[in-house]
Amino acid sequence: KFDDSIISDDIKKLLKGLHDVCVGKIGVEEALIENLKNAEFTEDDKLKCYVHCLLVQVGAMDLAGHIDAEAAIELIPEQIRVSVIQEANKCAKDKEKVEDHCSRAFATIKCLHDVNPDIYYMF
User: Fold this and answer.
1) CB 106 within 8 A of CB 39
2) Residue 33's pLDDT is what?
3) What confidence score (pLDDT) does residue 77 get?
4) Cα(99)–Cα(118) distance, rounded to whole angstroms?
5) What percent of the chain has pLDDT over 90?
6) Given a cut of 90, is residue 25 above it in pLDDT?
7) How confident is the model at residue 100 (pLDDT cuts 50, 70, 90)?
8) Sequence-separated (6 or more) residues with CB below 8 Å from residue 72
9) Which burial class, exposed, middle or buried, applies to 3 when counting CB atoms under 10 A from its CB (0-12, 13-18, 19+)?
10) CATH for 4-119, among 3.90.1150.10, 3.30.70.790, 1.10.238.20, 3.40.50.720?
11) Could you tell me if 50 and 33 are in contact, meaning their C-beta atoms sit under 8 angstroms apart?
């Protein structure tokens, strides 16, 4: 399980702001996000688009749907940075064929959790 004490308060504040922006934009239920934080991947279109919104907001996914974890490198705690980038880029490559950007974002973070639950973090 991910130890969120390695995330600085400044980054947590920033992520909370991104969370609020994406919830406002997408209208996803907080309960689904809470489940996602606990690695319960509910098949819900709004939840998938919430994940897409977060990845776009942090710069880890471009508008064409390409995922590049290194773009969000400053948000990733140093202790897990190398493994997060390696695993996320591998998962992104595996999920490239998923047409819908929301579904692709969701499938990528699910893959990241499945590959290494210790580096999975959702906000």
Assistant:
1) no
2) 96
3) 83
4) 28
5) 54
6) yes
7) very high
8) 58, 59, 60
9) exposed
10) 1.10.238.20
11) yes
DSSP code at position 73:
G
Nearest to 77 by CA among 1, 18, 8, 27: 8
Question: To 10 degrees, the CA torsion angle through 86, 89, 94, 96?
Answer: 180
Single-letter code of the amino acid located at 63: L
Map tokens 């819908």 to a residue. 100
- What are the backbone angles phi and psi of residue 44, rounded to the nearest 5°? -140, 125
User: Would the pTM count as exceeding 0.85?
Assistant: yes
Under 8 Å between Cβ of 29 and 45: no
Q: Does 1 have pLDDT greater than 70?
A: no
Whole-angstrom distance, CA of residue 32 vs CA of residue 78: 29
Angle at 87 between CA 50 and CA 121, to 5 degrees: 40
Q: Which two tokens stand for residue 90?
A: 């591998």
In this prediction, residues 81-110 reach a mean pLDDT of 91
